[in-house]
Design a protein that fits this description.
- This protein is mostly helical.
- It is 70% helix and 0% strand.
- The protein contains six helices and no strands.
- The chain is globular, with a radius of gyration of 16 Å.
- It starts with 10 loop residues before the first helix and ends in an 11-residue tail after the last helix.
- The N terminus is likely disordered.
């Protein structure tokens, strides 16, 4: 029986994740006015703008090529957003969904092979669908139209 080895994340990878989470906080802060305005007007447009929540986790996994970094970046960003914005803990849900989706879809894939590239495309599409579904949950039925 061979011993299992656990690879710790390097300081470089952790710093990249934290930096992307900080950038995410800035993006979140910049999009809050648009999201607030779009929420009652057009849920589909709200869903498109809310897609910003998948940017930093996706980029973290892509840049570092290290399993788990999308979820880690999402967790860092969720912490930053939760303590600095009025949205608080509610913003944690889409962030963790986006990061978890990317890590689950790209799991085991490293490098730039065609299969890995397809996994990234699938991860992006699945994250978009899941984030849109989360957005639908918070809207009342009368708001679920393209325009009000």
């Amino acid at each position: 029986m061979t011993p299992t080895t656990h690879r710790l994340l390097s300081t470089r990878v952790l710093l990249i994740c934290a930096a992307l989470a900080a950038i995410h906080l800035l993006l979140h802060t910049m999009t809050v006015p648009a999201l607030t305005a779009l929420a009652p007007l057009s849920p589909p447009a709200y869903g498109l703008v809310a897609g910003v929540h998948s940017f930093s986790p996706f980029l973290a996994r892509r840049i570092t090529d290290t399993p788990g970094t999308a979820s880690l970046t999402s967790a860092f960003a969720a912490l930053f957003v939760a303590v600095t914005t009025p949205a608080g803990v509610v913003a944690v849900i889409p962030l963790l969904i986006a990061g978890g989706t990317v890590d689950c879809c790209v799991r085991g894939g490293r490098g730039t092979s065609k299969i890995v590239e397809r996994r990234y495309v699938f991860a992006a599409l699945l994250a978009a669908v899941l984030l849109f579904a989360v957005g639908l949950i918070v809207f009342s039925p009368e708001h679920l139209t393209p325009t009000s």
